[in-house]
Design goal:
By secondary structure, the protein is an all-beta fold. It is built from no helices and eleven strands. The chain is globular and about 40 Å long. The model has no long low-confidence stretch (mean pLDDT 96).
Length: 122
């Protein structure tokens, strides 16, 4: 059974940084593409970033390029999202996702975590 557990969310001020983690189990982590989505109150879930099996450069939503960085550590079965220069509009629940195939954009992967809340105050 695939389990994805997010951590690292919280309440921060605008301009602060935060790093989210996603611990994965029940899958061969190095054979799954991983990614992050987010959902703000009253809005649909939106793609944030994704990364391929072996890591390397991630793929990002255009609006987030330069502020967010996705990475993974296959030895630890963990994925990360470093978020810098946070803005109030980044406030959302952030979800960890996994798929055997690389994904990006509006495609919804089959595996999701429960989410972690990120709140950015102005």
């Amino acid at each position: 059974q695939v389990q994805l557990v997010e951590s690292g969310g919280g309440l921060v001020q605008a301009g602060d940084s935060l790093r989210l983690s996603c611990a994965a189990s029940g899958l061969t982590f190095s054979r799954y593409a991983m990614g992050w989505f987010r959902q703000a109150p009253g809005k649909e879930r939106e793609f944030v970033a994704s990364i391929g099996w072996s890591g390397g450069n991630g793929y990002y939503a255009d609006s987030l390029k330069g502020r967010f960085t996705i990475s993974r550590d296959n030895a630890k079965n963990t994925m990360y999202l470093q978020m810098n220069s946070l803005k109030p509009e980044d406030t959302a629940v952030y979800y960890c996702t996994a798929d055997p195939q690389f994904f990006r954009g509006t495609y919804y992967p089959p595996y999701w975590g429960q989410g972690t809340q990120v709140t950015v105050s102005s």
